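Review the following:
>
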Amino acid sequence: MSEPKFRGIVPPVPAIFDANGQFDRVGQGKMIDFLIKGGADVLLFNGSAGEFSQMSEALRLEVAEFCVKYVNKRIPVIVGSAAPGTAETIRFTQHAKDIGADGVIIVNPYYCSLTEEAIYQHYKAITAAVDIPIILYNFPRFTNHDLSVDLVKRLALDFPNIVGIKDTVDTVRHTRDLIQAIKPLRPDFAIFAGFDEYMLETLIMGGDGCFPSSMNFAPHLATGLIKAVKEKDGAKILELQRQITLIPPMFGLDTPFYGVLKEAVKLAGVEIDTYALPPAHPLSDEKKAKVRETLKQVGVLK
């Protein structure tokens, strides 16, 4: 196989809760429908933007099961199945396969410092235990370990069911090096930008797409950029990239950014509650006003 299994726009979908913190199936369905209508190629559930790290095991399973069933094969679905330990990661990965997910994304173990060999053996054990396409997730800001090019290359060449990587790093140099080291040997290995603003550079360098959080409220940005790149429309590329660069400062209004993301989603017209699981807290009125202003600047609101 020479074409990647997953490519294009893969939004990390927020998990939707009601005002009492209970999983809101109706609201989640509205979020999913908005993204499919907006042109998403694949959907990611229980990722970082999906608040998986704040969920109980039971809630993670409930959200994954509902979302896979609701999408109902309209487009492919990826489920986050990471955990600090290998055995637990395997359980989440097996569950994702059992409910019909098309693939999983697995960030390397967090909290405990590990050698590269330990990380290699972690992924090796998962690939041996569950036959499902796996996307690596490199997010050194949260794991305190950057998946090196050599490690990713080794995993890509040793395990065919490791089919790509989401490279959430604050430099395109690492993504560039991944593309140049792995693509000539495994052209089907998908390399994605993790941050919205690096989508353009990743595509230009030969990568396969992005996991843009902005897709959840401004789908015209990511879909428009992909289209403009394919059509070599330089003026449109510049216009959209300048708008996309306004998004990260908005996400930086609060940490974690769940409240910011959900406020943007609600302002974009998706009828959801903006509740985020603790320790995240409600967004202040001042920050809500700044979210609204950004959405005006990028053409979501007038």
Summary: The radius of gyration is 18 Å.
